[in-house]
Amino acid sequence: MPTRPTTLRILAGAALLPLALVSPAWGRPVPARAVAAEPPSTLCATAGVLRGEHGQRATVSLCAGNGTPAMSVSAPAACGRAGTRVRYTCQTTGTWTALHGGRTAASATLPGSVPYPGPGTYDISATVRVRSAPAGVDLQGTVQATLTLTAPLPEPTHRIEVDRGTVRAGSVTTLTYTIHRDSDQGDGSARFGLIGEEGTGMKVSTSDRRCVNPLVGRYPSRTRLAHSLDCALTDLQPGHPAKVAVRVAVKGTCSTLVSKLGYWMPQGQTLYTGGMLAGPTVICR
To answer: I need a labelling partner for 160 at 20 to 30 A (CA). Which of 81, 135, 225, 261 fits?
Structure first.
């Protein structure tokens, strides 16, 4: 029996942020307590000082973006060595984890980004290695800082649903994906993709003419990825979602099937506009 639709929503694209700054349309009353949205910003706090046995020192900060679709964390450092006047440049590598309310809210490499989890106070810890140029400083350790992000979560613009969340090994299953555009901004174009795990023998196919199995290899190769599907959607409108029905053939080896959606937003001449949405993952049992 089909399960209830699995729905996943994400943050809107970066181009949505300026819309909050636009004055209300003519004829609309302005709320008495309306407050203009703050522009995107970077929050930084000193997170710790690493020291070496021979006078090496690195002061590490943790920084996070506020008011952007992604929570991007970096760890800039100022480093030096006692007894020298050399001006070092510092390279920081490592990983970071952000806790919110005692629970892990996000983690990634340094520098690294995750979808913005929303406003709140985050305890961010990072395991870092700081190296200098020219050589002379090479330190490792853990640093920690608390940052409070205030930007609200933007309204989602697109979402993806699928009519069931599982497939079975040794079977062929038909899945129906429904792709919604809920925002009046942007346009009806989007690229919808499905991909299984390489080497498992999963085959994804459809009779929908908007979709193809991606072509790989150098010309004149005609090899296509049987475990992947790429669909060009051009008529997404609020109230008019697109449906894509696909056949998923799973052999003896199980494979998950992930979905993705790339879409346009306003300011189309800007290089980085639009967004990428991770849709529901169909698992194999």
So the answer is: 225
